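Internal tracking record. Fields below are filled automatically when a chain is submitted to the structure queue. Please do not edit lines marked as system-generated. If the sequence contains nonstandard residues, flag them in the REMARKS field before resubmitting.
Queue: standard
Priority: normal
Entity type: single polypeptide chain
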Amino acid sequence: MKKHYVFHLSIIVLSLLAMPAWIPDRAFAQPETLTIAAANSLKDALRTLLPVFESQHSELTVRVIYGPSQSLRKQIEEGAPVDVFLPSLSEEIDQLEKKGLIIQGTKRIYAGTSLVLITGPVLPAPIRSIEDLRTIPVRRIAVGDPKTSSVGKVASQFLKFSKLDPTLKSQYVYGEHSRAVLDLVAKGEAEIGVVYRTDAITDSHVRILDTAPAESHSPIQYGVAIVWTARNISGSGNFIEFLLSSRTQDELKKYGFDQALDKTGLALRQEVRP
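SYSTEM-GENERATED OUTPUT FOLLOWS
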């Protein structure tokens, strides 16, 4: 019995020694990083969407840099290592495109939203609409800084169009980006605020009073593009396809986005493959 045991053990040892000494590289392959520069107003939606995307692409690990759209665009211009740019206003991509800083043919419009007037838990006057601002005084109105944020740029257009700017300008309290404006109102540091619907709909501490007329400002279109510093072209193409998918579009609606799907997105992968 002992001899049989030794014999079988010897066979096992020899078999192990005869196995190849190498293991395929893919067994040790680490996920590639996909770096996305995204507007602050996309934070809530991306927290839901990115785990879904990563589950579909196990070869990728997504890293997101959040910030005001204009600030992110300037960082990209200076060579920040970013693959995909997701500003809250597609005009920021247009500026990069004019300078040749996005990969040609990769820009897509995937969603839109509206500009809204909001209030917080304490309202000193019965403001119900934009028109009420002409007759009912308020102490502080939170708006985005047009020098640093897309929402500030759009809000400025709306206030000038509505001829409210000269009357209310002394009451403005500026936030660096849309979330900062939202926080000013939610915390009671401003009675009224002007933000994107996508921000207002996700915060239970504020409520929407009115919507700015579409003709009062440039269209709020959320665009996406692969930028000149991109290192992961294939992963970037996969992500843009994911944004354009019907499942993602349905999910975005829950966060206050309107569908603004660019039909040419379906041909993206063929255009951007190296």
